[in-house]
């Protein structure tokens, strides 16, 4: 079973993603901040990380992604940014941080499953 880590500060979005992907047969891990997400990823080695771009706290999704990319054991893990900000500048910031792609909020459950299946080769 493929393991997906959701790093998202908004409980409603986290729950939508969790329920949608659980129904798709994935094992789901959740973190509500960038720092917890980095720690959980180091411990659990997920197959995919869905990272909210903008989160309160000491590190946002961009910084969390940069930190994950510096870890040899996670440098090849696919990271998709979840963002309500789809401006070209924001997309470029994500690429520079090391994100592999984007899912723009709001998204439909079907679009989420399709994107996840695509990146995980399902």
Descriptive notes:
The protein has a five-stranded parallel beta sheet with strand order 2-1-3-4-5, with helices on both faces. It has 122 residues and is an alpha/beta fold. It has a single domain (3-111), classed as 3-Layer(aba) Sandwich (Rossmann fold). The chain has five helices and five strands, in the order βαβαβαβαβα. β3 (48-52), α3 and β4 form a beta-alpha-beta unit. The mean pLDDT is 93. The longest helix has 13 residues, at 11-23. It has helices at 11-23, 34-44, 61-69, 88-97, 109-120, and strands at 3-7, 27-31, 48-52, 78-83, 101-104. The chain starts with a strand and ends with a helix. The radius of gyration is 13 Å and the shape is globular.
Q: Overall 3D geometry? A: globular
- Spatial arrangement of strands, main beta sheet: 2-1-3-4-5
- Biggest sheet descriptor: 5 strands, parallel
Class computed from helices, strands and strand pairing: alpha/beta
Rg value: 13 Å
| Amino-to-carboxy terminus distance | 11 Å
Number of domains: 1
Mean of all residue-level pLDDT scores:
93
Strand tally: 5
Percent of residues in beta strands?
15-25%
Low-confidence segments, ≥5 residues, pLDDT <50?
none
What attributes does this structure have?
single chain; 122 residues; alpha/beta; Rossmann fold; five-stranded parallel β-sheet; 5 helices; 5 strands; globular; phosphoprotein; Sig_transdc_resp-reg_receiver
């Amino acid at each position: 079973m493929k393991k997906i880590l959701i790093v998202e500060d908004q409980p409603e979005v986290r729950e939508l993603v969790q329920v949608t992907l659980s129904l798709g047969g994935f094992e789901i891990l959740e973190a509500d901040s960038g720092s917890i997400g980095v720690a959980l990823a180091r411990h659990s080695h997920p197959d995919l990380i869905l990272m909210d771009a903008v989160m309160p706290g000491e590190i946002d999704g961009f910084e969390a992604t940069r930190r994950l990319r510096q870890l040899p054991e996670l440098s090849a893990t696919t990271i998709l940014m979840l963002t309500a900000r789809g401006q070209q500048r924001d997309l470029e910031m994500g690429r520079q941080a090391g994100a592999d792609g984007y899912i723009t909020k709001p998204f439909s459950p079907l679009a989420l499953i399709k994107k996840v299946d695509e990146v995980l080769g399902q």
